[in-house]
Amino acid sequence: MSALDTGVVVDRVPTTNCWEYGGHPYALEPLALPPLRPPRRTLDDPAPIMALSKRLRQLDSDDSGSSLPRPRRGDAELDRLFWFRWVTGHQITFAIWQLLAGVVDEANTPEADLERIAHDARPLVAGYTGMLLYTGSPTREIYEQVIRAPLARQHVSMSGAWARDYGPIRPLLRGRVELGSGTQAKTLRSECLLVEQVHEGIALKLVPSGVSLMQENGARRGTWQMPRKALCCLYDNVFLTHRMPVTYEAVVRQLIRRIHAVILDINTNGLDPLSGSGGREDPDQLSTHEVVERKQSLVQDLSELIVQTGQGGATPCR
After folding, report:
1. Which has fewest Cβ within 10 Å: 31, 73, 123, 188?
2. Phi, psi (5° rounding) for residue 31?
3. Phi then psi for 241, rounded to 5 degrees?
């Protein structure tokens, strides 16, 4: 019996520009991913995804998602909104990482078309940049109360180092995958450098001390350290991510559902729902012209990612 048969995977492509995710606004859904990466890169029926992409391109940001509540400071729903962003943004990131792992695989084959691979990879890396900005959108105070404290209750040393999908793409992001010296390769490398800059900036914004939960509590672990596989499972559980044999198409469709919900959220609330209060905490890394432009184009970038994954072009998995 497959994950689809058991009802674990909700992979229906949204058919309207209304909220269809999780049963109520800013709710969560479980994500199902294969242990390593999707087994193939083709879609049985890309038509629903391309139709959704067309609808999203026609969105009017003034009324898109108008049925969604717009939490403000002091509103109890504000915590739900930022927890939704933290969990769903990470789920999107995990799916992007899996699809990028296919890029690394294909780039390492003798017959690889390196310029095409670099071209196909860029929207995925740009999507990762966008999710860093999205999940890093709370103020420092909200991050401490709504996100960091619950993470520490799961494990005092909770760490992104336990994310099992990151390892295969680390060489790509750090420029250690040979993609030639063409224009597309240079563009991709610039995008990877931007990921590094934004990641550093989000860390400085949310945790100015630079001391992570692992660094803060590492000395307490002693002989109680859990096996790494158990830590990876614990990390997956925080983000409602389950490992099971699902198809490439199921991964893409789950990704599209989440991007659709994120676009409706941003069109309703903006990237900063607190009307600029979080922006004053931005360090220099998040205040450059390039990053400011990327914040403004986030919805457009995510819409382009839907097109790429719907066409199968940005997901070169073997």
Report:
1. 73
2. -110, 135
3. -110, 125
Evaluate whether 95 touches 267 at the Cβ level (below 8 Å). no
Q: What is the pLDDT of residues 248-272, one digit of tens each?
A: 889 999 999 999 999 999 999 999 9
Per this entry, what is the length of the chain? 318
Burial letters for 249-258: b for 16+ Cβ neighbours within 10 Å, e otherwise?
Answer: bbbbbbbbbb
Show me where the domains of the chain are located.
Answer: 76-242+271-311
Are 91 and 27 within 8 A, CB to CB?
Answer: no
Ranges of H-type helices in 136-288: 140-142, 149-154, 170-173, 183-206, 213-217, 228-238, 248-269
Element spanning 268, H or E:
helix 248-269
Sequence-ordered list of residues with C-beta below 8 angstroms from that of 128, at least 6 positions apart, any chain: 93, 96, 97, 100, 195
The answer to whether 22 touches 85, Cβ cutoff 8 Å, is no
**Helix 183-206 × helix 114-135 angle, to 10°:** 20
**Non-local CB neighbours of 9 within 8 Å, separated by 6+ positions:** 3, 30, 32, 246, 250, 254
pLDDT in tens, 186-221: 999 999 999 999 999 999 999 876 545 555 555 455
Q: Give the Cα-Cα-Cα angle 223, 225, 226 (nearest 5 degrees).
A: 135
**Which two structure tokens, joined as six digits, stand for 110?**
């003798």
Tokens 């989000």 -> residue: 202
Least confident interval from 1-10, 16-25, 27-36, 160-169: 1-10
298-311 and 47-57 helices, crossing angle to 10°: 160
Residue with tokens 């990876």: 232
The Cα 314–Cα 100 span in angstroms is 8
Question: Taking the model in full, what pTM does it have?
Answer: 0.90
Query: Quick one: the chain helix, strand, coil %, rounded to 5?
Result: 60, 0, 40
